[in-house]
Structure formats: C-alpha cells, structure tokens
Specification:
With 132 residues, the protein is mainly alpha-helical. It has helices at 15-36, 38-62, 71-99, 105-120.
C-alpha cells in the first residue's frame, strides 16, 4: 500500500538546502558578472542551474511517499529520481553546450562545482546535526 506524501515542497526538510543552492548559484553568478563580465555571469548561473533543476526533480520524485507500508514505493521513487536526475544533468549539459553560442566553460564548471559542493555539505545544514 502506497501512502502519498501531500506535504508541499516548502515544508520538506530538504527545502532549506534547495534555497541555499539557489542562493549560491545567484551569488556566484553575481560575483562572476562583476569580476569577469556578463559572459562569465550567465555561464556561472547556467552551471548552477544544471545542478539545481535536477535536484528539484529528485526532490519531487524521492519524497512522494512515506510510511513503513510504502517502503517499496519509497525505494523505487528514490531510484527513479536519481536516474532521472543523472539523465537530466547530462541533457542540460548537452543543451547548454549545443545551444549557447557564447559560453565561458570555466565559469560554467565553477558554478556547477559550487552548487554541487553545497549538496555535498548538506549534512551541515540539517537541523539537529551533531556539533562537536
């Protein structure tokens, strides 16, 4: 029996991480814009969005179900969410490289790395994380 999670996105525990990723992407794009110009700014923003958009998809898929009776549906939705996230990331990279004429590749990967690093540090953002 699948129990559907009707909690809105802004009430999920992962929402602060998604907001932090958006803030890092916007901040990095602003710094890139001011430091190296508009080309670096929007390239950095595109790199950040290549991380953020698939993470939004994963969040939607992974947190659709809850409860002990839904364990099979939860595992399945996590797997499909992760596979969709990987495919979406690859498709967004392909779309950016094929569709954007002027692109600062270094800035794109800086934006990607910074926002991806925010994901890697997500345990530090979780409420109640042990602070030794």
């Amino acid at each position: 029996m699948k129990i559907r999670n009707k909690t809105p996105l802004h009430r999920l525990a992962v929402f602060p991480l998604l907001l932090t990723q958006l803030a890092v992407a916007l901040l990095a794009a602003t710094v890139g814009w001011l430091w190296k110009g508009p080309l670096a700014g929007y390239s950095t923003l595109l790199g950040g969005m290549i991380v953020l958009v698939p993470n939004l998809y994963f969040t939607y898929k992974a947190f659709r179900y809850f409860g002990a009776r839904s364990v099979n549906a939860i595992v399945q939705s996590f797997w499909s969410g992760e596979m969709g996230k990987l495919i979406l990331t690859a498709a967004l990279f392909a779309l950016v490289f094929a569709g954007v004429e002027r692109l600062n590749v270094a800035a794109l990967f800086v934006g990607y790395g910074l926002v991806l690093g925010t994901s890697a540090c997500s345990l530090l953002l979780v409420k109640g994380f042990p602070k030794h």
